[in-house]
Every structure is written in C-alpha cells, then in structure tokens.
Amino acid sequence: MPYTDCNIGFPNIERGDYDYAIIGSGAAGILLAIKLIEKGKRVLMIEAGHFDEDAERQSLNKILQTGKELESAVSGRKRAVGGTTIAWGGQSLPFYPIDFSKRDWVENSGWPLPIEEVQPYYNEANRFMGVDEADYEDDVLRMLGMKKQPFNRDELWYHFSKWAPEPNFKKIYHTTLERNVTVLYNAVATRINVNEDKLADNIELANFNGDKTAIPINNVLIATGSIEASRLLLASDAQVAGGLGNQSGWLGKCFMEHPCIEIGVVSSSNQYKLQKAFNTHLYKKRKYSVRISLAEKAQREKRVLNASMGIMFDYNDGRIDPYVEVRKYLHEKKINSIPSLFANTGAYLLSAKALVFDKLIYKHKARARAVVMMEQEPLKESAITLSNEMDAIGMRKASLNWQISHKTWDTVVYASGVFKKELKRLGFGNLEIHNYINANNADWEKHLTDVNHHMGGTRMSSTADNGVVSTDLQVWGHPNIYVCSCAVFPTVSHSNPTLTMMALCIRLVNKLTVKN
Fold first, then answer.
1. I need a labelling partner for 382 at 20 to 30 A (CA). Which of 34, 109, 117, 215 fits?
2. At 59, is the secondary structure helix, strand, or coil?
3. Band of the pLDDT at 331, cuts 50, 70, 90?
4. d(CA 48, CA 96)
5. Distance, CA of 322 to chain centre
6. Nearest residue to 30 (alpha-carbon basis) of 506, 474, 488, 507
C-alpha cells in the first residue's frame, strides 16, 4: 500500500475500508499499526508531516504559554513519519511500583490500574525497539562485568537504562508500513466528529494547500504527543461542549514533564574509577547508562518525588573527544586530526583500552557534571487549553500553563545532599553542589529545564468523573475513540516515558483484537 501525499489530493475512503484509523506516526502510531496488522486488521495511518522535519509543518506546533516556559514545545515534537523517534536517543527504562501507587504526599497520584497490568508487556515493547530483555540491574551488571556499587539501598538505587541500537522507527518499519498500511501524509487531523450515539463518525483533515475533507471511520486511535492529543479532543467540540472526554473537566489538566537540573560537579582523584562506575557502557553495539535513583523507602520517609541522578562526562574547553576519535578509527580506520593523535596519544590509548576491556566509554580528563531528572507532581492548574489564535490551517492553537510545585525543588535539594554524601562515603570523590541548590532559593524554578518528555492532559482514571480515558485508554463516553499516548499517564516517575507508553499500547491491541 503506497504512502499517499494529501497535498496532491485526498483519497476516496469508505467506512468499511479500514478497521482502525491511527492519528500520528510516531512511536505509538507505528507500534499500533504493526501490531494491528499482525492481528489481521486493516489500518489507516494519518500523519500531519511528511518524511522529514521542516519549518512549515513544525510551525503548527507553536503554542501560547502562560506559565513556566516549555522550551521544547515546538522542537520537542516532530511532524514527520516516525514522529519524535527521528530525533530521540531510544532510551528504555520501565516504571516501578511506587510510580503506580497512591501517595498521600503527592497530589493526584495513583494509577487506576496496578503495575502488574503493564509489566508483562515491557519485554515485547523492548523487542519492538530492538532492545534486549535483560533486567535493568543484575543482568546488565553481569553482561558488563561490573560490580554493584554499595550505595545505601534505603536511600539510593544503582541501576541502568538501555538504549535502542536504531532509535528511528521510520528507518526500521518504513517498508513494513508501505506494504501493509495506508499512510496519509501531509494530512492534519483537525477534528473528530461523533454521531448521536457518541461514536466517532469521521475525522476532518486539512492539507497544506488549504483543502479539507472528512473521512468516515470505524475506530480511531489518537497516537500523538500529549499537547496535540489534548488539543484535538478539545477542538472536537462541535457535538460535545468542551471537547470529547471532557465531561469531568479534566481534559488538558495535569500536563507534566521531567524537570531536570545540573546540581554540581564531581572532583575525583581517580577519574577512571569514577567513569567506570557512572559513565555509559557498550555491549554488543548496545548502550547502557547508569541511573542512581531515590529508593522507595527514602521517598516515603522524606515525602519527596521520584528522581534519578547521573553523571555526565563532557568537555567544555573545545578539546577533541578521544572516545569519538577511537570509535571513528575502529569503524572507519581514520581520524580527523593527525596532530591531535600525537598530542593526545595517552588519552586515545586509555579510551581504546576502556572500550575493549571494560566496555566503557571513557573520556580522559572530562568534566563530571551531576544532574537530576525528576518526577513532576500532577497539578490541575498545569494545563493545556485552546486559545483564540489560529494556526496556518485554521485550527485553534494550544495554550499551555506549565506549573511545577515546590515539592520538585524539595526533591532536588534532598537528592543532591544524599548523592554527595554517598559519593564521598564510597570514595568516588567530592560533589561540589552549586550554590543555587538550597532550600531557601526563591528563584528555584528558573534553574529547572524540560527534557522533551511531554506527558499528561488526557488522564487515565477508574471512573468518568475523575479523568479522560479508562484503564483501556478509551475516551470516557465514546466507545470507539482511544488515546494511545503519554498523555494518559496519571503520574510520570523519573523514567523516560516511551517504554511504558508502548507497553500500554500493546496491552490495548491485545484487548481490542480479543473483542473483535
């Protein structure tokens, strides 16, 4: 089935042509399409972009902002086949039991389904990403020949995240989609219309030439990012006041990110030891990154949010990275700078030795920056709404009021102190915490950055009066509309969200195909 450019013209589609229409062709959209065709379903995919990112299509991501600035509002979302997978690193890390639990110190916390409903799908999601099925702690330690660092387990937890060898889903699944799925590109979904039974009846589409159409559908799976999922449901208010799924007033509420901050620099008398314990490792062409997370016991006792720390090793003085040069030589048998080779022979040899014998990405005399990435408390006032300003195709722009509670800063201060204490106790060195990391900093919010992890807005709930979608991702009140996105997360852990989102999608496909 060829890809169809809707700028040339919209195809004629009848209601019976497809079982499922998927809006969005990112990680969720491609996963859903592949899994549904494996079950014998006929799939239509609708993508606003084309095959590469460009300024015209990215401009549709522009939003109004009334809260803390979300720097990744435009650049962190990709309107192209492959979605954000054309730009992300492909990091895999699951959520854990505390992330699903109701916590009396975290407002609006608690998932309406237990983690046991999601965990069985993590391995399948990893296989789809090309990631191994080893656990994120002991299995990886054994593979890498590493020892577990003896952090105080009541406070900190030493584990790993895993990376996909090829993170771009467009590259991996382009041919499969072309053969088995009808992909409409340059097709912007602007509204979902429902019939008198509240079933999705058709999707209104616009192209970049000013043309519009409406295509009939049987089921629709919204597989866009959080901002666009909320925007589309809010904009679909022709038959339902306030938008689809908004009978509870929760639509667009609890937008979340993973606030991130550099907390200081680690000085060490044994940099190789420090990097061997905390830098990225390679095994069979796959990357593994070290995470040091707050233990569940510490979170409960200190009443803080989930968070993970890491140490980033880099250069800020223009030096050539010896690891990069070693990898280039091993793969291409060439280097960029002959003078650099003679001036830095020792660094190159150390990097080569580390890679061969310790599977370690070693960066000689690199700066060691300690960073923290945190869960964000879900707040109703952190919300996505519709503005009165129109975009280039005549759709109301989203407006974001991103709000972060002070509990995030409490977590930063606590995590920084315990990480410093443990690094010193274990002989790794001294974490020199930046002066602005203190409980009395009135300007704390300006030091936090976003990391392209947009979540929340179509909150999953156990009943229709406290959320937007059910535990099966069905929009409340609309039996054939589903949201397959990080937008459904009630809380967001510290973990990269894509793996958990993909697990939820696989779970949904299994439920849909059993019913049908």
1. 117
2. helix
3. low
4. 34
5. 30
6. 506
DSSP lists the bridge partners of residue 196 as: none
Three-class DSSP category at 58: helix
What amino acid occupies position 432?
Answer: E
Per-chain mean pLDDT for the chain: 94
Taking residues 386-400, report their average pLDDT.
97
Residue 3 token pair: 């890809």
Structure tokens belonging to residue 286: 């796959």
Q: Report phi then psi at 481, rounded to 5.
A: -120, 130
State the first-to-last Cα distance of the chain, in angstroms, to the nearest integer.
23
Among the listed residues 465, 516, 477, 498, the one whose alpha carbon sits nearest the alpha carbon of residue 223: 498
The count of other CB atoms within 10 Å of the CB of residue 496 is 22
d(CA 221, CA 189): 12
pTM for this predicted structure = 0.94
> Mean of the pLDDT values across residues 109-125?
98
Measured CA to CA, the distance from residue 411 to residue 475 in angstroms comes to 34
pLDDT of res. 342: 43
Q: The tokens 């929340």 sit on which residue? A: 456
Of 90-104, 332-346, 356-370, where does mean pLDDT reach its minimum?
A: 332-346
List Cα–Cα distances, 417 to 272, 309, 422, 427, 433, in angstroms. Answer: 24, 12, 9, 16, 8
- pLDDT band at residue 499, thresholds of 50, 70 and 90? very high
Decide if 323 contacts 355 (C-beta within 8 A).
Answer: yes
